Amino acid sequence: MAVPVDTVTKQPQPPPPSPSSLRFAFGNVLAFFILLLIGVLAFSIRLFSVIKYESVIHEFDPYFNYRVTQFLTKNGIYDFWNWFDDRTWYPLGRVIGGTVYPGLTLTAGTIWKVLQSLNIPLSVETVCVFTAPVFSAFAAWATYLLTKEVKGTGAGLTAAVLLAMVPSYISRSVAGSYDNEAVAIFALIFTFYLYIKTLNTGSLFYATLNSLSYFYMVCSWGGYTFIINLIPMHVLLCIVTGRYSSRLYIAYAPLVVLGTLLAALVPVVGFNAVMTSEHFASFLVFIVIHVVALAYYIKGILSPKMFKVAATLVVSVGLVVCLAVVGVLVAVVASSPTKGWSGRSLSLLDPTYASKYIPIIASVSEHQPPTWPSYFMDLNVLAFLVPAGIIACFSPLSDASSFVILYLVMSVYFSGVMVRLMLVLAPAACIMSGIALSEAFEVFTRSIKFYISSLSEFLETDAGDVMPGSNGSPQFDVLKTEKKEDSLKERPSRKNKKKEKDVVVVKEKSSVKSKTEKRPLVLPAEVSFFALFLTVLLGAFYVVHSVWAAAEAYSAPSIVLTSHSHDGLHVFDDFREAYAWLSHNTEVDDKVASWWDYGYQTTAMANRTVIVDNNTWNNTHIATVGTAMSSPEKAGWEIFNSLDVKYVLVVFGGLVGYPSDDINKFLWMVRIGGGVFPHIKEPDYLRDGQYRIDSQATPTMLNSLMYKLSYFRFVETDGGKGYDRVRRTEIGKKHFKLTHFEEVFTTHHWMVRIYKLKPQKNRIRGKTKKTKSKTISSTPRSGTTKKNPWH
Amino acid sequence: MVKPSSSAATKDDARALIHSLRSAYSATPTNLKIIDLYVVFAVSTALIQVAYMAIVGSFPFNSFLSGVLSCVGTAVLAVCLRIQVNKENKEFKDLPPERAFADFVLCNLVLHLVIMNFLG
Questions:
Q1: Domains plus CATH for chain A?
Q2: Which residues contact A757 (CB under 8 A, 6 or more apart)?
Q3: Which of B4, B16, B25 shows the shortest C-beta gap to A313?
Q4: How many CB atoms lie within 10 A of CB A363?
């Protein structure tokens, strides 16, 4: 995207001073239209999911957000804040208003309301589906603004177009992926932009906007702690490297006070904004910046000799104050049980923390560390452009570019811990690559431009001496460097202001830099043509990859599955089939037990009460369900019965080869259950450390409730073999009866199976009815009427 | 600004320092001095609240928090205003003091709206 801008600036070949303002105006209009197109691109590349599937909410968490949005639009904001949800976490319930990040819901609800008041009758679902694409367009524009603050318009446009289609971000913001990250990434980038803007201008107005934007980020996503730790780090970096300025103070100090207060307004954060360690870094730096500001102030009003005397005093007093505060903080932190850190944050600092102590965090696939190919998959060529961008940011190093570098470094670290945080890395990588690409384009086009202009000059003066490769002559270099000086002077001119404190250092640096800057300009025209071609090719590869990723990899809604086989397209709509069955055939107050992955979907789609859901706030409750699933049939029935459960829902992929089913998640149920109830032991389910369900499987495994519910009557499907297509093996125990559960519904492809708990017997018949179902019944029960359409 | 905390050995130095500080500070314009007074007032109010909290306890924690942060925020914003309207600060030469004051008022407005909301 830097190309059109460069061509604009290139057009008048002998640069006369008069039309330059016109040229700028033209460039601005062009940049505006490019931005508009980038927005359209960002929106439309995310519509593959709607086109290929349908306009539907995706996955798990979005269903919860959708349900909350429905509640909000129906009952209003006050009921939303006070909403106690009794449909989930039975019998505990959940205070939704106080435990949810409300940013996304309020955004979509507001959009819906505005559209309604304009007489545009969109359904809530439609608004929810398209919120993420709209906000990714906003995010692209925010990236433009941020990068423009760092490196100018060209880099900004390039970064914006890169962000508009970076696969990592697409994976979280396709149409229908109605999750917090969809709006949070926009808020993140915009907050960073406003911080940089405040830093560059020193305006209190932008500082106010910055804290409001930070407030929106806090509303939207728990990832706001990234901001409130990154900005203090940058402030500290600036102070340590001697870049303190009063603009830094204006950018930081109001943000801490206002931001903390605003964050405390969000119910889910509340007093955590001042009580937990994630926020302490900002307070510490807040004190440090005051000490430093005072020192600089006194340095300003005193003579250098007196300042030396004062310095020792100031430093010692400041140190004492700091130490006292640190002491208090440490005492406060040490007195809290988890040292003030929440589990997820701890697993960020120590990547092995979660897998050691909190299986529930480790069990979520997006909390795993990423693999190397996922970097290439999610960032593609950006991964290679980033180092070039870092180098470009160092010449010349400003406050803004140092911030971007810090942002990149931190997000690379965090993305290495949790695959989900790749999302935070994506904007940083886009900004860096945008800077790198635009610098490269600038150098190439400048040398080509110069080559053309010199060629025409030569033709005018002496037509005889023209040689195509002759622009290495010293004459040219002088001309070129002069030009470069001019163009360079425009940009650092506003940055020069900031550096007045350490003029000497900067002067040295800039002289060194201008020397090094001159070197790449001696590119011969052929080389730059070729390089330009290669760069464009690189960009083209990126576009192709991104479109492929958007269309093929990241658009599946995961509640509707498709598969291509030799006889055409198959659609597996089993989930919605099952949820619809539940909502039509069960009582409104019936409780449905399933593994927590399906909790949100059950409450949202079937409108039935669930025992556990994806919120995972109560580990014991989840462990109870995990224990029930890992226990033998009778014990499982007792646990479920004590929870007042009527139906049990299991997801089974063995028939069609759907890999993320409950049998594959079963070990996590065992682990989480065993973490709370020690009689469940993981080795009991493993044969020689291997997880298997064939005839070699352990008896505990074969007798577990999950095994039985998954494979009940499975042998009927393929004529006695019982071949599981996910595990690629024949199942271990083929013929068995269920004594305490009754199969009531199995979907078309057997992906969801629903069982009803049999009522307790009137009379205890003694031990013969115990669940030692050694009696292999070769004739499966066919007397019970089953609503199974499978033949 | 700086309290020479009874460093007996360098008494002369400290005295000279105080003297030069006082003479340097007396040269600051009156409007900046007013802002300084405002800042000192806000900070001392915050300190009084913290002392009160230490004695009585922090039970309505949001009230305590909003009280202290109101004072701290006011002080910080006033310092920002002081930085911006200070004529000796060359970074803000092209920023008119009216604009700086308008920004200051806006930021204060936001701050105190939030505090009123948070006060409970």
A1: 570-757 (3.40.50.12610)
A2: A637, A640, A641, A645, A646, A647, A648, A740, A741, A742
A3: B4
A4: 22
Average pLDDT (B84-103) is 85
pLDDT of residue A19: 64
For A290, half-sphere exposure in the C-beta direction (CA atoms, 13 angstrom radius) is 23
Residues near A360 by beta carbon (within 8 Å), at least 6 away in sequence: A616, A619, A622, A672
The C-alpha atoms of residue A566 and residue A559 are separated, in whole angstroms, by 23
Q: Is the peptide bond before A396 cis (omega within 30 degrees of 0)?
A: yes
Helices B30-56 + B61-85 axis angle, to 10: 160
The complex scores an ipTM of 0.89
CB contacts, 8 Å: A303 with chain B:
20
∠ CA(A578), CA(A581), CA(A582), 5° rounding?
A: 90
Task: Give the angle A256-A260-A261 at the CA atoms, nearest 5°.
Answer: 120
Residues 6 or more apart in contact with residue A341 via CB below 8 angstroms = A276, A277, A278, A349
Residue A94, helix vs strand vs coil: strand
**Mutual orientation of helices A619-630 and A633-642 as an angle, nearest 10°?**
150
Tokens of A463: 């037509």
pLDDT at A137: 94
Beta carbons of A293 and B79 less than 8 Å apart: yes
- Which residues does chain A have within 8 Å of residue B66's beta carbon, measured at their own beta carbons? 261
Hey, is the C-beta of A272 within 8 angstroms of any chain B C-beta? Answer: no
State the pLDDT at residue B23: 84
**Sign, CA torsion B40/B41/B42/B48:** positive
A568/A317 Cα distance (integer angstroms)? 77
- State whether residue A688 sits within 8 Å of chain B by CB: no
Q: Select from B21, B81, B110 the Cβ nearest to the Cβ of A302.
A: B21
The answer to whether A254 contacts chain B (CB < 8 Å) is yes
DSSP A279-305: GHHHHHHHHHHHHHHHHHHHHHHS-HH
Average pLDDT, integer, range B91-100: 84
**Contact B14/A262, CB-based, under 8 Å?**
no
Tokens of B45: 């109010």
For testing contact with chain A, the best of B107, B109, B112, B116 (most A CBs within 10 A): B107
CA distances to A183, A209, A254, A414, B72 from A204, rounded to whole Å, are: 26, 9, 8, 31, 16
The answer to whether the beta carbons of residues A425 and A415 sit under 8 Å apart is yes
Question: Is A204 an 8 Å CB contact of chain B?
Answer: yes
Provide the pLDDT for residue A90.
Answer: 83
Partner-chain contact B84 A300, CB within 8 Å: no
A452 touches B at CB < 8 Å: no
- How close is the nearest chain A Cα to the Cα of B115, in Å? 7
User: With an 8 Å Cβ cutoff, is A380 touching chain B?
Assistant: no
Interchain contact A212–B (C-beta under 8 A): yes
- The rounded Cα A535 to chain-centroid distance in angstroms is 28
Domain spans in chain B, listed from the N-terminal domain onward = 8-119
pLDDT along chain A (791 residues), means of 10: 41 50 85 93 91 86 91 91 87 86 92 93 91 93 93 91 91 88 92 93 91 94 89 92 89 92 89 83 89 83 73 76 84 66 63 63 74 84 88 87 92 85 90 91 85 81 47 38 39 39 39 45 77 89 91 83 79 88 90 88 89 84 89 88 89 86 87 86 84 84 87 82 84 84 89 88 60 43 41 41
Q: Is A249 on the interface with B (CB under 8 A)?
A: yes
Size of interface A-B (CB pairs under 8 A): 121
Number of H helices, E strands in chain B: 4, 0
Partners of A263 on chain B (C-beta within 8 Å) are none
Task: Find the angle CA(A392)-CA(A398)-CA(A399) to the nearest 5 degrees.
Answer: 125
